[in-house]
Structure formats: C-alpha cells, structure tokens
Amino acid sequence: MSNNATWARIGGTLRRNAWQAVPTILGIIVLNFVLMELVPGDAADVIAAEAGSATAESMAQLRAHFGLDLPMLRRLWDYLSGLVFLDLGVSPRHNTEVTTLIFGRLGNTLLLMGTALGVAVLSGVLIGVLMSLKAGKWQDRVLSVLALLLYSTPGFWLGLMAIVLFSVKLGWLPTGGDHSIGAGLTGWPAVIDGARHLVLPALATAGFFVAIFSRLTRASMLEVNRQDYVRTAESKGLSPAAITFRHVLRNALIPVTTVAGMHFGALLGGATVIETVFSWPGLGRLALESVLARDYSVLLGILFMASLLVIVVNMLVDLLHAWLDPRIQIR
C-alpha cells in the first residue's frame, strides 16, 4: 500500500473518530451539568460565607450577575451554545473567563502527566523485558517484589516519603511548586530549575504505573515467545537480541499501549492528589479549589477538557496499534 493511501486511511479514521467523539462528549457534559445541579449550595454561598456580612439582597444580586438564578435548562442551553465558540463561561470565584483559568494551568498538568507517563512506559517496558528474559530466576523475583511494592503503595504516600528523603533529609530537590519563588531565573537556569521541581511529582505519579506496565510487558513477552513465528526466527539463526526487540517486543507492546491509553484518565484523576501534595499549579489543584469553592463552571470546564484529552489519547493509541502490527486494520 502506498504512503498516500495509508495517510488517507489514517485521515479518514481520525475524522470518523472525531465525529463519534461528539455525542460522547455531549453526553459527558450533560451528565456532569445535571450532577452539579444536584449538589447543594453554589459559589454565592461560599463568597457570602467568606465575606461574613452578606445580605439576602447582595446574594441575589450576585446570583443574578453570574446567571446562577436562571432555570437549569436555560443555563444548560447557554452553556452548550457557548461551547460552540469554546466559551466555558465565567468563574464566580475568580471573576475571570474559565478558558483563561484552564489554559493557565493546562500546560503544567500536561507537562507533569506527559513526563510521568513517559517515565512509566519506558521504565515499565525495560523492567518487563528484563523480567521476561530472566523469568524464574532471582532477578525476576526481586523485580516482581519491587513491582508489587510500587503497585500497593499509594501515590500520595510515595510522594510524601520522597519529599522527606530527597528534600528534607538530603536537600537535593525542592519540596513543591514549579519554580523557585523570587529566584528570577531566565533561560537555561530556569529550565534546570523547572526540571528539578518536576522530578519528585513525576516519579510519585509514575510509580503505580511502572508496576502495571512491567508486569504486563513480562506476561505479554512470555506469551509472544511461545508463538510459531518466534520459533521460525530462532530456526533462521537470528540473534536473541534481534528476536527480542524486532519480533517479540513489538507485538508485546500492543497490550501495553492499550492499557496506557485506558489509564490516561486515571492518571489525570490522580493529578489532583499529586498536585496538592507537591503544590503543583495544575488542573488537579484547580479542580480541588473549584470543588471547595462550589465554582462549578470551572469544574465543568476541567471535566470537559479532561474528556477531550482522554479521547485524543485513545485515538492516538488506535493509530499506534496499526503501526506496531500492520495486520490490525484501521476501521
């Protein structure tokens, strides 16, 4: 098949998946909106409680200003109409456009999640390959115990212990934040400073997924090793390294990438805890602050953005499957 035909099929697949994603996202938005309506209280209650001297008239004016006194169906229609133009409304808490708040934090969350996912996949696959090559030996048993420890240790606990060891005791890395406050760094020193702040939260986030990917890679490689085409490759005299990386690992990565796509949503959900532990200014902390402040317009916007990210990642996983195994037809 020519390259043009391949790209045409990939483009067609992306368009079909995009159209299929529209009703999915619409359903998620409506469901989230209705669930928010069932929660008692709103942002006006929190603002009034913090002010300490709000009257019934001032709270009514506040609700009228942000449209909180309108009927639910009217607000739902206004919200869906605004989404067409990527207008997610105004935050009563911050008195700012929701899109401004979200895009101000989105980069930090994508940096943290992307780094954690990359570390988890690379480390998990490498450990899984080593475990399969040494299956049944002491190396396999030691790594299996380490994987089990990572799997059974909550991410927030791993993060707290990392802060105690690497920040408090050894003083190697900062305890939180995404940059050194007041340092005024620019250029390459600022990049190094940001990387030092990223290490601990990324490792704490990746720990649980390293265990999953390593166990999955080990099981997949042991299964693929029993296939006929592997024995055929061995009979042709190919080196063990060529068989492992060219024939076995490539097919064993298919379930690993599938699970990675499925767990991306869980990774975003776990960001709330990790970002709180490390004071990382991302969407997770913004979501937690929005829940505490009853700022549901911001929370709806974050859920909408998270849904988009999960759908895009799963579309990329489908394309990656087709690249890893050409026998998988892109439909």
Automatic annotation (TrEMBL):
Residues spanning the membrane: 21-39, 110-133, 145-168, 198-216, 252-278, 298-324
Membrane topology according to the record: Multi-pass membrane protein
Pfam family, one: BPD_transp_1_N
SUPFAM superfamilies: MetI-like (SSF161098)
Record localization: Cell membrane
Statement: the UniProt record of this protein carries the keyword Cell membrane: yes
Main localisation: membrane
Keyword hit for Amino-acid biosynthesis: no
Domain ABC transmembrane type-1: 106-321
GO biological process terms on file: transmembrane transport
One CC-aspect GO term: plasma membrane
Key words, A-Z: Cell membrane, Membrane, Transmembrane, Transmembrane helix, Transport
Family: Belongs to the binding-protein-dependent transport system permease family.
Name assigned to this protein: ABC transporter permease
Originating species: Pigmentiphaga aceris
